[in-house]
Amino acid sequence: MFYFNDFKVGDRFISRSRIVTPTDVDLFTGVTGAVNPLFLSDEAARRRGFEGRITPGLLILSIAVGLLYQLGLFDNIIALLGINDLRFTSPVRPGEEVNAECEVAEKKEVKTGDKGIVKLKITCKNITKNSISIEGFITLLYPKKPA
């Protein structure tokens, strides 16, 4: 479990990897209603220039956050304050392997002195294609470690 005090600017964390499955895509599109043919049909995706159907970017973001959760990074947060400058740089297809990385970009104590804000640069890598799928920043509020 991480506290504000545990982070130093420049600290890096790398998750294990995970394969995105066709079932992941089907469940996500069904739950969210994001039923774009790009996500559901190889044929439709090929007509738009892809190798086959692709994974929704927001699902990849969710998977990346989940992989970072497994490192214990978010177990102790008070609040998610924002996700900024998010860029979807290359698609991930079902069957491809991804992992997540983050680096502490900034941190600052809040006025009350009992908590602080940590800004993490997050990257989701497509290991299968050796490319970056998503980059952006996530800002979180953490408690300070009890004395």
Structure description:
The chain is of the alpha+beta class and 147 residues long. It has one domain (4-143): Thiol Ester Dehydrase, Chain A (Roll). 23% of the residues lie in helices and 38% in strands. It is built from four helices and five strands. A five-stranded antiparallel sheet has the order 1-3-4-5-2, with helices on one face. The protein starts with 11 loop residues before the first strand and ends with a strand.
Could you give a quick summary of the protein structure above?
The chain has 147 residues and is an alpha+beta fold. It is built from 4 helices and 5 strands; from the N terminus they run βααααββββ.
Order of strands in the sheet with the most strands? 1-3-4-5-2
Fraction of helical residues: 10-25%
Structural class: alpha+beta
Give the SSE string: EHHHHEEEE
CATH topology: Thiol Ester Dehydrase, Chain A
Query: What is the domain total for the residues?
Result: 1
| Principal-axes shape call | elongated
Give the strand tally: 5
Name of the CATH architecture? Roll
